[in-house]
Amino acid sequence: MAKSGAKPAGLDDHAKKLAAGFAKGRLPQPTPELERFLLTHSAEIFAAAEGVCRNMPPAGDDEALGIGYLFLLQMLLAGLNERAKRGAKDAADLIARFQADLAAQAKAGEIGGTLLAYLGGALQQAGIAASPELTAASAELGDEDDDDVLPGDIVSVLDDILEACDGDPFEMVSAFAASGHLMPDDAKIALAAQLAQNERPEARAAAVLFLLGGSAAVRKAAAAALVEQASTLSPVDLRRLVAMRNWRPERERAGVDVIIQKARAAGVACAPWAKGAVDKLKSSATDGSGTQLLLAVSPVDRKTQQIATIFTCDGISEAMASEPQPLQAVKEIMAGLAAHGPMLDVSRAFVDRMIGHHLGLTVERGGVPPAGLLQAAETIGGAEWQPAPIDYRELLNELIADLPDDLRAPEDVAMALADSGDIAELDGIEDSWFEDDAELEEKVKSASLRAREKLPAKLLQDNGAIGAQRARWAELFVMTALWMREGPRDEWLAWADLAVIARAVLDGHDLAQIGLMRNIAERTVACLARDDDDDDLDEVF
Length: 541
Fold this sequence. Notes:
Number of helices: 25
Structural class: alpha+beta
Number of strands: 6
Helix content: 55-70%
């Protein structure tokens, strides 16, 4: 049969579209077509890396197209990392093969240091730690020109980087986080020491920010280097140290306390916090991977605004504050985000509560938030942000206590559960709510079409993939209900339905009798069978 309709865009098509937008100064905007491509073409990470190497200088001459491939690579890797963290063995294996392939190409001289740094930056942005093999290959590339851990002229190199970053320590640390992701810890430790000992205040400010990133070994070394330079720190450095003290695992706080004490003993006064003005506060819902976006728009002057973004996913995963943007550019960015999914206007109390929650989760697992969180705090006034994880069961009790009268009678609750598959406020939100792991995917794809029709009901049984995850789904519903309560009460009434559903899920209610859970089960089977369905369509058309 002849093919019908346009062929879906592939990797090269998406890279060219992104490059065209970059050339016009536009930020990449997610589209349903791009999201479908990223979901179903994770193996394209190898071709995306090749596209980066083929087009980025110094090997290539089309930087915009190279950046397009780099953006796609980072997004594909991020998707794989989310799946790997949920136990998908195929995703973890693909990431491992990718890093092994990069290491082999580096050792063979097929990828130079500059291009390897770009690709390492994609791994860093995706939240993937560099493998020992790739780190060693990167170090070997550096050793070709110098046998020392860092170049002998590192001071002048650091000065050049500070100049390129206009002395902004946040920009400098962000640049190092991406370009130095493949550096071994010994090199990062040496770099932190050099920054702390540098005569320029901006370098010492960057050393302070090294306490919010990298491995525990790098953070410990940075703290030790700063103790020796405590008397030279600025009042702003001291304020930042005080702010980040509780953002660290308890075992690391004593090291920061020593720096603070020595700085104060030397007469360093702590700079006051700026009040921080905010024009708008917005938040997305929490998607199926657990990711949520918190966004603040702050005034700079009459013609420009600044955007602070904080991404959370069982912790603070990414945060930053943009350079001042023209009002029209900010308007376009906000419109693009709104097209991707609901973004509610939220209260400052909600933002502070969510940041405290995810700070708590970050610290509990022995991590630290990115330095960008401190930058966002200084932009919008986050002096009071402290780790404070939310007990979702206690939050659910708060929501249940506030239910409207028409959702308290047993018959009303039963009707709400049965009809929950048609909650209008979840349009554009629940599309990402499904189970995704390699073992389940294998079962779905190996099942016949007739057997697949019966799978949703099996998934909802207590020993099924969804039934065994009642607590996880209940928590997602509770957090979504909390978010919905921030919307206009006459438009976002479904928060109460979600609270009722969460209670029923936790109390052992038959999941097959809950419309929303049936949706999730059916979507799980449809999404995990998608590659097979796409292959079938290719054969037909």
